[in-house]
Amino acid sequence: MYKERFRKLLVFTLIFFIISNIFNGPINSDPVSSKRQLEWSYFGKTGPRYWGLLDPTFIQCTIGSMQSPINIRTAKAIQTSGLEDISFKYTPTIFSVKNSGRTIEVVPYNEKNSVTIGTTQYHLQQIHFHHPSEHQLDNRRFPVEVHLVHQDSTGRLTVIGIWVKAGDTNNIISKILENVPKTDSKIHRIEKTIDIANLLPKQKDFFKYKGSLTTPPCTEGVEWLIFKHPIEMSKRQINKITELFPENSRPLQPINEREVYLQK
């Protein structure tokens, strides 16, 4: 009940904010200050609890009913061997890497990497990292979660999630971490090609559900595919990510009436 009252209060405050701007003009006309007001983070007054109040376009972060991440319960997942035909097409590609200030972003130089679900092809747009994992498996959080963001020709999104556990050194991750800029917004080109196919776990069982982006604007309608089996990174690799971003994970969201499928 308290959570529902808090949500209604946030919606009312946002409506008041919009009306005030319409009748009274911007709170601050300085473009630098205005840009600063739209910044979001994982802590304090710009953290996840307040995302929906920071900008009208972030409203789904507060009122959305299909938000991500969620806690996936294996026992409640609907097991199936034929959701849709899903195929991965990844080829050795040159990538750039950027420290966005919130995560490590890895972007391909072409659109030759894709996943096809049914008859729809989604091209890889970027890869980024969260520490600790955003999704949980049976109430368990992993040290890192990797997101591969894909988009089709109409703008619809499919995100592939990969959990990470401590283990052997990951050669694909090594290529990325060696090139991460130490300062925000700088972009480095990774001169050696990376085959993202080698980043996927060998066992391809995955969970599938409808959710949202886990960062503002928290857009819903995102198709999530999350591999059941984690990949490995060395403790040193995990530590490098955690040193850069001590915590960049959104809290769990209610699953509500959604169903989670497990395809083997």
Automatic annotation (TrEMBL):
Task: Please state which protein family the record places this protein in.
Answer: Belongs to the alpha-carbonic anhydrase family.
- In short, the EC number is 4.2.1.1
Name the catalysed reactions: hydrogencarbonate + H(+) = CO2 + H2O
Q: What does this protein do?
A: Reversible hydration of carbon dioxide.
Alphabetical keyword list: Lyase, Metal-binding, Zinc
The name this protein carries in UniProt is Carbonic anhydrase
Q: Which GO terms fall under molecular function for this chain's record? A: carbonate dehydratase activity; zinc ion binding
InterPro entries noted in UniProt: Alpha_CA_prokaryot-like (IPR041891), CA_dom (IPR001148), CA_dom_sf (IPR036398), Carbonic_anhydrase_a-class (IPR023561), Carbonic_anhydrase_a-class_CS (IPR018338)
